[in-house]
Write a structure and sequence with these properties.
single chain; alpha/beta; Arc Repressor Mutant, subunit A; Nucleotidyltransferase, domain 5; five-stranded mixed β-sheet; 40% helix; globular; DNA recombination; transposition; Integrase core domain protein; HTH_IS21_transposase_type
Length: 242
């Protein structure tokens, strides 16, 4: 079975269980083998382990912040004064980068595409279909427990269509408590929506890139794959009026 990331596993599960697509159609659209799709569907797993002991990282990774800064500054310049990607690559090498030009070119292209998408006018729906989306957020509240003033974290889960809320208090805001809040909320609502709307929670997002790009936490993606929730819209939509 080819190596799969949790995001692909989640896509296979949603395509089969939610969208009702055939195994053949999923193989064609996601470019994976039939055995892979069958294993994902039959096992119910949201992650598979592999024998690789180390995960190689591209040489461009340590230079992302430098590149972002250079590309953003270049984007603010008049067109005639803009540097070419070759010039940006040469400047990066002067700073110590020893990777390839192609890696810089691909990163610059991805950055430009994300920037264009972020600046384009976006339509934010003011209404939601039943079961379409839920919203998740945290608040901190001061409560009195056994005569002692204590600060607690409260998980807020609200259905976007009906505005039905679910609240649950925790001593801290940890990933395990995020998972527990989802589990209890979905049990209370009697099921999960097709997608969730979040703020940029540290328990969900490892890194924020340009525009809408997010590096989602692996375990958080597993949770979404388990409940058949689409990859979350994180920090992209305003919370609906209370």
């Amino acid at each position: 079975m080819e190596m799969l990331v949790v995001e692909t596993i989640a896509k296979i599960r949603r395509a089969y269980f939610i969208q009702g697509k055939s195994i053949k159609q999923i193989c064609r659209e996601l470019h994976v083998s039939r055995n892979t799709v069958r294993k994902v569907v039959r096992s119910g797993a949201t992650e598979f382990s592999y024998g690789r002991s180390t995960q190689p990282r591209p040489k461009i990774d340590p230079w992302r912040s430098d590149l972002d800064e250079m590309l953003a500054e270049n984007d603010r310049q008049p067109k005639r004064q803009c540097l070419t990607v070759v010039r940006i690559y040469e400047e990066l090498r002067n700073r110590g980068y020893d990777g390839s030009y192609d890696a810089v070119r691909r990163y610059a292209a991805s950055w430009s595409k994300a920037t264009r998408e972020a600046s384009a006018a976006a339509y934010v729906p003011l209404s939601f279909d039943p079961g379409e989306a839920y919203q998740f957020d945290w608040s901190h509240e001061i409560v009195l427990i056994d005569g002692v003033t204590t600060t607690v974290k409260v998980a807020h889960v609200r259905l976007c269509h009906s505005r039905m809320p679910y609240f649950r208090a925790y001593p801290r805001e940890t990933q395990e408590m995020v998972f527990d809040a989802h589990d209890k909320a979905f049990a209370f609502f009697g099921g999960a929506c097709s997608r969730g709307i979040y703020d940029n929670m540290k328990t969900a997002v490892d890194a924020i890139f340009v525009g809408k790009d997010r590096a989602y936490n692996r375990r958080f993606q597993q949770m979404c794959g388990h409940y058949l929730v689409d990859p979350p819209s994180i920090g992209l939509e305003p919370m609906a009026p209370q």
